[in-house]
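Project standup — Tuesday

K.O.: blocked on the structure for the chain from last sprint. Re-posting the sequence here as requested.
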Amino acid sequence: MDGRLDVLVDGSNIVMHATDSEGRGRTETLRRTVQELEEAKLGFFVLFDRGIMRKCDDPSYVKALERRGEGFIVPSRREADAYLLFLAERIYDCFILSRDRFTDYRVIYPSAWRRRITYNVNGDRLEFKPRLEEVKMRRSSAVKLPVELDVECNIGQVKCFLSLVTRRRLEAQLRSSQGMLIERRAKGGRGRISVEARSKRITGGGEGGSGVMLVEVEGIKLLKYRSRSGMTSLTWMPYVLNPSLGRLVGYASPRTLIMLAEAGCINVPSPQKREREVRSKKPLSSGN
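H.V.: unblocked you, prediction finished:
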């Protein structure tokens, strides 16, 4: 990512546009899309649904995008569409590259269609509408990366975020006590997590070279997280009179914003179809 975000890419939609003889999505279409965006000098970020690794013909390419900081697989079963639309509409004011019409989100994002770039595979050529040259002209004042953040969240939500950041290491221990937190040394290309408190002691972890340690604290003063890329730097500070609640401030990458939403620190609207499904699954009264 070059410090700006012009286009959010619906990676799963593009990969599954064409399938092989075994029903697996072709990543070649996504490769070509990424190449076209790079040649147009458009900043982009690719989002994938959780199941993409078992549905595509080349999972290594998806992982490569993640390693380069150009893509992210949504960690929950929530569809990536929710984040594509939220980030495009509420955060980055950018385009979305997808053939999806997002009909389930029309009430939440009535003007989302204005942001959509559609694509068509015509032999060896990819055709975009609007053309990427036009997108570039309309994005002369793109939102710069990363974006500033200032939200209220509780210590439980912060713990959930830390669990996601560390790929759920020590998750059970984190939940065992309110005073349990995580620290991580900045080693092996990983981000750093540090805690300042009135008292602190290491109680476990640190195995396997992950650098993740479980710490028990009293009187937490602040918690800091900085990603290995430098695209995220966040500090959580508790309120004096209600230390279980506090403010999370700093700046964050698209990947971090999604994990914060997964943890409940940021509210992302749910698709309308899910609400209908919940209502339809309510048990009927027996009348007794």
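K.O.: great, moving the ticket to review. Confidence is low (pLDDT under 50) at residues 275-288. The two ends are 61 Å apart (CA to CA).
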